[in-house]
Amino acid sequence: MNAHARSSVSAHAAELRRLLRHHAHRYYVLDAPEIPDAEYDKLFAELQALEAAHPELLRPDSPTQRVIGAVREGLEPVAHVVPMLSIKTETDTSSAGALGFDAAVRNALKLAPDAPPVRYAAELKFDGLAINLRYERGALRQAATRGDGETGEDVTHTVGTIAEIPRHLHGVDAPVLEVRGEVFMRRDRFEALNERQREAGAKTFVNPRNAAAGIVRQLDASIARQRPLSFFAYGLGEVQGWEIPPSHSALLDALAALGFPVEGHRAVVHGGEELAQFHARIAAARDALPFDIDGVVYKVDERALQLQLGFKSREPRWAVAHKYPAQEQQTRLNDIEIQVGRTGKLTPVAKLEPVFVGGTTVSNATLHNLFELRRKGVRIGDTVIVRRAGDVIPEVVGRVPGRRRGYVPNFRMPKACPVCGSAVVREKGANDHRCSGGLFCAAQRKQAVLHFASRRAMDIEGLGDKLVDQLVDGGLIDTLPDLYRLDVATLAALERMADKSAANLVAALERSKQATLARFLYALGIRHVGESTAKDLARHFGRLVRIVDASVEQLLEVNDVGPVVAQSIHTFFAQPHNREVVEQLRAAGVHWPEHDGMATPGAPQPLAGKTFVLTGTLPSWSREEAKAAIEAAGGKVSGSVSKKTDYVVAGAEAGSKLDKARELNVRVLDEAALRALLEA
Ligand code: IVH
Q1: Over 70: is that where the pLDDT of 69 sits?
Q2: For ligand 1, what atom is nearest to the CA of residue 130?
Q3: How far is the CA of 180 from the centre of ligand 1 (A)?
Q4: pTM
Q5: How many CA atoms lie within 13 A of 251 on its CB side?
Q6: Of residues 42, 88, 110, 125, which has the active-site annotation?
């Protein structure tokens, strides 16, 4: 290599180091990253490759050589007696990642090819921040962040507000027991937090991890108290006078027994194939988890083998993180379009250069509202960060600075609704722009019909957006009850409809008439009445008339119903045309069980305090129906099996949840047994 090439490689390495330091500072110190993790990882890998090819460029202070993380001013530094290390990351999201790790372990242990498979503890890789909890003689003394691995920050004041972290460990008198795990924010809480921030016109958080890190590292504990965080334990730090269990799986059992939250999807598996199966199984469950994960972690289960394997350049040889596709990516914002929602809200929608994020290709993402868009400084042509996690609609969470070329004007909201031409208004103090056209606006009518038909509402299969477009544009549907006046002949005459599909839709409409009060309320699309509020209303009032006639004061008595929601419900039923819609729907045959089996005050609650998990297909009940019945009897239905699960209700083709139930000795019921329990 000539002198010129050498100096340009060295300049490139210096530039990469500078960029990595800048972004690490944004991420670790400010909790405000400017680029997605995947982008950071790319830069990191590039520098690593460069340093490997040109060892003379390697510096001890290179970001590749040390765990980055600094102590925030105002927080006390904490020296970790046992350093908090990171684990090797396998970014190949195929099964090769799992097989490669198993091969490396077998190799390092010098196992013969015919030696039995290695036993692993497999668990989720939580996307939060690592915390060390120090207990002395069983009492929580200190909580600290990881920092650079050697020195973290004292965050006892904020982490101490997390309700699920035990303050005292019963029966533990060890001088020192440090428990490590992840503090994170559940996705629904994150969404609610951002929704509140948006409504207040305040800064939103990019993702749950940044929200959690920002809250934990606040100087003021009162903020942490209002913004509930969660915790899962997954390891140990310093230990004195406590017998460490002989395997990782036994350690997690012991931690759970001490009262620490331990996540329920963990499993003990044997060999690389089973690791790969675990990776695939969790990939399928990822969207339905209530929190973000960015991969799974495999750990050699047996402690003796862990000790034998030891460490290589500050990473344990006995553990690896096997990643999933990133939930944040950057891409180009090609255009901004306006979408008119069910309640008339105008949402700016980003038209993106298609990008693979969170496991699917995304080309549209919400920008929420004009103020949010302005605050983030997003303009057409920018490089933006897109996030898609779980069932949440993909959103643009920010823009990557420093990429704009030339002048681009700020986006403006239209003065007239792009669908119906009605005036666009903004209520005083509100951040949302709305079309004033009401149900005159075809967009609002279409959205109202789609919502009514959606799975969690009336569940009318086959009523998709193309069909609703035709029905509304063709004047066949003006109000919801018109749906039940559709007949096979009319439907079959529409584009892309045949006799068969028309007959299926009419049958689906017929089926949908058998509803529950909660579903019906939700289906009406009353502003601020989501699924859970609808359930609360049904449970509280038991009968529709009582809700229709309820005063604001009476509505306020319902669990979780505040003034805004109460007013919205009251206003809805005060409108004569809304009452008429309700009447006509009932006249069309929409009905539900009187009192709806929902717990009316005083109704028996045979399943109170019991937690159920449903899996597989039941012979006669849909999952929604089984869930409604359990909840009506006071039980809870959860998505995943853990030690806290009382019963797993299993139908045909039940999968891993059933295995898990057997593993944990959770009682398994079939539909008949569930019915018997309900009648008890
Ligand atoms: S074990 C020596 N287990 O990933 C092994 N880490 O790079 C220590 N993480 O900082 C870590 N879920 O914040 C472990 N189930 C899990 C994890 C996990 C998330 C995070 C943790 C750590 C990073 C490792």
Answers
A1: no
A2: 13
A3: 9
A4: 0.75
A5: 25
A6: 125
Residue partners of 137: CB distance under 8 A and separation at least 6: 172, 173, 174, 175
Task: Give the torsion sign (CA, 589, 591, 594, 595).
Answer: negative
CA distances from 284 to 24, 85, 388, 390, 655 (A): 31, 29, 15, 11, 12
Is 513 one of the annotated active-site residues of the chain?
Answer: no
pLDDT at residue 400, rounded to an integer: 93
Specify the pLDDT at position 27: 86
State how far the Cα of 315 lies from the Cα of 497, in Å rounded to an integer. Answer: 60
Q: In this predicted structure, what is the pLDDT of residue 597? A: 45
**620: closest CA among 677, 672, 679, 680?**
672
Q: For residue 219, how far is its CA from the centre of ligand 1 (angstroms)?
A: 25
Task: Determine if ligand 1 sits within 6 Å of the CB of residue 296.
Answer: no
Best CA proximity match to 152, nearest among 79, 66, 82, 231: 79
Quick one: tokens of 478? 């003006």
Token couple for 620:
């006669």
Instruction: Decide: 152 and 206 in contact? Cβ < 8 Å.
Output: no
Supply the mean pLDDT for the chain: 91
Q: Work out the pLDDT band at 599, boundaries 50, 70, 90.
A: very low
Phi, psi (degrees; rounded to nearest 5) at 236? -125, 155
**Strand ranges across the sheet with 176-184:** 139-145, 129-136, 176-184, 230-240
**Per-residue pLDDT reduced to its tens digit, 207-245:** 999 999 999 999 888 888 888 899 999 999 999 999 999
Q: Kindly state the tokens that stand for 169.
A: 């460990």
Question: Can you tell me the distance from the alpha carbon of 608 to that of 627, in angstroms, rounded to the nearest whole number?
Answer: 14
CA atoms of 512 and 592, how far apart (whole Å): 10
Q: Is 582 in the pocket of ligand 1 (CB under 6 A)?
A: no
Ligand 1 close to Cβ of residue 67 (< 6 A):
no
Residues 605-614 have pLDDT tens digits of 788 888 999 9
Q: Is the CB of 130 under 6 A from ligand 1?
A: yes
Query: What is the C-alpha to C-alpha distance for residues 609 and 631, in angstroms, rounded to an integer?
Result: 10
Q: How far is the CA of 281 from the centre of ligand 1 (A)?
A: 20
Between the CA of 140 and the centroid of ligand 1 the distance, in Å, is 21
360-409 pLDDT tens trace: 999 999 999 999 999 999 999 999 999 999 878 899 999 998 888 889 89
655: pLDDT confidence band, cut at 50, 70 and 90?
confident
Provide the percentage of residues in the chain whose pLDDT is more than 70: 98
Both structure tokens of 408? 């681009």
Q: Give the per-residue pLDDT at 518.
A: 95
pLDDT of residue 29 exceeding 50: yes
Ligand 1 atom closest to Cα of residue 319: 5
Rounded CA-CA distance 674/668 in Å is 10
Query: What tokens were used for 433?
Result: 């722009």
Residue of 27, 84, 85, 87 to mutate, ligand 1, most atoms within 8 A of C-beta: 87
Atom index in ligand 1 nearest the CA of residue 89 equals 7
Ligand 1 pocket test target in 120, 132, 150, 182 with most atoms within 8 Å of CB: 182
| SS3 state at 646 | coil
Is residue 123 predicted with pLDDT exceeding 90? Answer: yes
Tell me, in angstroms, the distance from the centre of ligand 1 to residue 82's CA.
15
Ligand 1 atom 3: residue of nearest CA? 234
125 lines ligand 1 (CB under 6 A): yes
Q: Using CA atoms, how far apart are residues 497 and 499, in angstroms rounded to an integer? A: 7
Ligand 1 atom index nearest CA of 86: 7
Whether 602 has a pLDDT exceeding 60, the answer reads: no
